[in-house]
Each structure stands twice: as C-alpha cells, then as structure tokens.
Amino acid sequence: MQFDENLIRNVVSQVLAEVGPMPTTDGSVALRPDSAPASAGQHGIFYDAESAVAAAREAFEQLRRGTMEDRKQIIEIIRRISIAQCEELGLMEMDETQVGRPEHKIEKLRTLGERSPGVEMLETKAFSGDHGLAIIERAPFGVIAAITPVTHSLPTITGNAVSMIAGGNAVVVNPHPSGKRVAAEGVRRFNEAIYREVGIDNLICVIAEPTLESADALFKHRDVALICVTGGPAVGRAALNSGKRAIVAGPGNPPVVIDETADLDNAARCIIQGASYDNNLLCIAEKEVFVVESVFDAMMEAMRRAGAVQLNAAQIDALTAKAITTAGDDHHHVAAKELIGKNASVLAAAAGVQVPDSTELVFGETDENHPFVSVEQMMPFVPFVRARDVDHAIALAKHYEHGFRHTAIIHSRNVRNMTKMGRELDTTLYIKNGPSMASLGLGGEGYLSFSIAGPTGEGVTNPNTFTRERRCSMIDELRVI
Ligand code: NAD
C-alpha cells in the first residue's frame, strides 16, 4: 500500500496540535495558557504552508494584543539562545550544509544575537502645527513569508526573526532544503523558550520539508501579507512575480578597486579577511579585484606577505576546470557545487598545490574575461586583474558587478576616486579601506542583518523594513505649545 508521506505528517501534526504541547528537551512540559490556540505546542515545526500560516497568524494575533515589553522579551530570548548555543547550533549548521568554516558559523550566530537591531530601531515621526498633530508610526504587516539561503540558514532566520518580531509580525520560513534541519532545530528552540516564558508559540514557523511547491504555496497564501527572500536570482524573480509585495535580498558579485594611493598592506589584510570569511559565502564578500597597473605587482606581493597563497596560471586553469561549470540553455558559467564554500586548502589541492589547512585565501592573476571574475564563486579564491588606471578599474568593477547594485569596495586615499566609484557603481553597500563585513557593523559603524535588499531598495533590513506606515491625526488640537 502506498502512503503519502506529507499526508501522514500533516495528520501527525494535527493530532499533536490537538493533544497539546510536546515535551521540552529538558523533559518538562511547556506551559499552555488556557487562551492558547490549538497549534500551541508545535514550536514552529510544520509540514505544509496552510497549517504553518494558520499557526503564525494566531501567534501574530497574540503578539498584537501584547506590549512592546513582550516584543523586547521575545527578542531577548532569541538573542540569549543565539549567543549561548552558538557553538552547538553553528556546528550543527556546518555539519548539515558542509559549506563554510565552523568558527564563522558559530560567530555569525553569536554576532546576530548581539547586534541585530530590535524595537529601539522603530521610528515614530510627528508633525505638529496650527492644525493639530499627526503621528506616523510603524505597524506590523502580519504574517511574513521568508525564504532563506543555504549559505546562512539559521543566521538568516535569526536576523529575520528579530527584525520581523520587533516590527510586530510573525514569520513562516521556507528554508533551503540543504539547511532545513538546523533551521527547524533553531526555530524549535526559539519557540519553545518563547512559549515557556511569554506564552506565545509559533511566532517563527518553519516548513520542515521545504520544496519549491511549499514556497509557492506560501507566496500565494491569502494570509501572507509580505514576502522576504534571501538568495540568488531565481528566488528573487519568483518573489517578484508572486503578485505580493516582496523584499528581495538578492545575489552580488562585489568588486574591489585598488588605486595607486592605496595602503597596499591594509588592502591585502582586508581582502583576506573579507574574502575568506566563511570561505567567501557572504553575498557582500570580495569576489574579484581590479588593481591599477602601477601598483599591481606590489599588491600581489602584499597579498603574499599577508599570508594568502598565490596560484600561477597553470594552477588557476586546473582549479577553474573543477570549480567552474556551466548551466542553462545558454551554458553560462556557474560555480561548481562541489567546491562552493570549501576551504582554501581544498581549492589549492584542486589546483595541484598542497597548502596548510590554516591557509585562509588563495589568489592569482587572471584577465578580465576569466569566469572567476564574472561568476559569484562563493569560494576562497580571488582573481586579480590589471587595470590601466583607476577609471579603467572602476569601469571593469561596474561591468562585473552585473548591475546588481549590491556591494563594492575601494582601497584608496584619493577622495575623488572614492566619489567617482561610488557614483558609478551605485551599490547598496560601498566600503572604503576596510573588509566587506565592516559595512554590516562588524568592524565599521551601523547595524547587522544578513538580508540586504538591493533590488527592491530597502537596503540592510531592520525592523522598520517589516512595517507599514500608519498616520494618526488629531485635528486642531493637542498642539500644547
Ligand atoms: P539559492 O538562490 O540557490 O537559494 C536561496 C533560497 O531560495 C533557497 O531556500 C532555495 O530553496 C530558494 N529558491 C530557489 N529558487 C526558488 C524558486 N524559484 N522559488 C522559491 N524558492 C526558490 O541561493 P543559496 O545558494 O542558498 O544562497 C546563495 C545566494 O544567496 C547567493 O547568490 C548570495 O549572493 C545570495 N545571498 C544574498 C544575500 C543578501 O542579503 N542580499 C544574503 C545571503 C545570500
């Protein structure tokens, strides 16, 4: 007899919802206030869009009846778990996804717990005049559908959850299938603690067996008020075609320009730090470097001095054969899955070179037409290209950023060159004289989020991103001055 796995799961989830809360990991049973909805006790784990959205909707209604203090408390719980359990959850993510570096998986969860902006970021505006008072406040949308990438499965959920709940919303996540287990486990832990301490379950729901169909069902669900996707071009297109408002945190291919005035040793340290972080999985990470001819050789030397390992032309060819493949009817170049997010030592071995596992980055000279320049490689090999002068370097950077308007970096002491590049590339993030992650508040000013919405213009997402503007007007009164 043939069983429909999804049907069985749904029946099990309904039965669990009816019999009440599941035991917590410490053996105790979660509190279930009398007023709690039937889905309480699921701790956010669902197998279909319909029941996940229904539970999130109930959680949203409960949150709506609560106070700002409740929101703060919920965010504190998420922060506490992200920080205290970053090692266990980070290693779980590494184990499941097999991309990136364990120490950075851990660090990402910890820093998100520490630095994602909360309710303090919500803006209220007031207009006061002869005709009274108008207050503009930020109201929630309701239930948000989020899609998250394999490159930061639980970190993206964590940052999204903090921002979205700070804005007063609930969220249903369709995670990348290759990061679904850590997504579900993190969400379960967050909800379990929130339910125990605040009495609301399912504020963050996850589709435990995510598919393109479950993403589509979320996009189309009448109770989903807003979509937020973080990923490559396909998911961005799907979200924008959904007919709903979508916040799209799309792909990047961040170029670096180095002019003749740059501090080359600082540039080398910054490129290594940014391009090797989590083995170059960050969408903001340095992906290709354009150096003006007059300092090109000195820059390559600075990279070697700073600890990166240079590959020669034959070695780069050997690596390219394994690291770059083709896809689609037009056979366009893409990064080979087998090498995405792998260690620099693995890339070096693919190039026929043995280097210590502690090597952070491999690099080498290519011409501008090399696929490593145009492809978002997401691996710790960075191509360096000679440019005639800074104008040429900026033109190349603009071309190979592909118009994503995501992230660009310059190393220079010439303010005119900085200005010129900033104007030309018109990117959401533009970093001068630092590593890419400094633009997310990790070594620079500003706040942290792992969803950077370039195509739809919201920028580094924060609680305000996930709110609707509402105006409350008092006519001719309450101006008391
Ligand atoms: P991906 O595009 O393969 O997948 C991202 C998510 O979209 C996954 O959950 C996937 O299942 C889903 N998806 C893909 N096609 C879909 C469709 N047609 N309908 C619905 N869902 C769909 O990307 P990835 O490998 O997981 O992550 C890396 C990519 O994400 C890179 O391009 C990177 O630049 C980008 N990214 C962007 C940001 C940002 O803030 N802008 C942050 C992280 C990653």
Write a structural description.
This protein has 16 helices and 20 strands. Helices cover 41% and strands 19% of the residues. It has 481 residues and is α/β, with parallel strands linked by helices. It is globular. 53% of the residues are buried. The strands form 5 sheets. The chain has a 7-stranded parallel β-sheet with strand order 11-14-15-10-9-16-17, sandwiched between helices. The protein has a 6-stranded parallel β-sheet with strand order 1-6-5-4-7-8, with helices on both faces. The protein has helices at residues 5-19, 49-65, 68-84, 86-97, 102-115, 153-166, 180-198, 212-220, 233-240, 264-276, 293-305, 313-323, 344-350, 371-374, 390-400, 415-425, and strands at residues 45-46, 125-129, 132-140, 143-147, 170-174, 204-207, 224-230, 246-249, 255-258, 288-292, 309-310, 324-327, 332-335, 362-365, 381-387, 407-411, 429-432, 452-453, 459-460, 467-475. The protein folds into 2 domains: 45-250 and 462-468, Aldehyde Dehydrogenase, Chain A, domain 1 (3-Layer(aba) Sandwich); 255-442, Aldehyde Dehydrogenase, Chain A, domain 2 (3-Layer(aba) Sandwich). Helix 3 packs antiparallel against helix 5 (102-115) and helix 4 (86-97) packs antiparallel against helix 7 (180-198). The protein binds nicotinamide-adenine-dinucleotide (NAD). Residues 147-152, 175-176, 212, 215, 230-232, 234-235, 238, 249-252, 283, 376, 450-452 line the site of nicotinamide-adenine-dinucleotide.
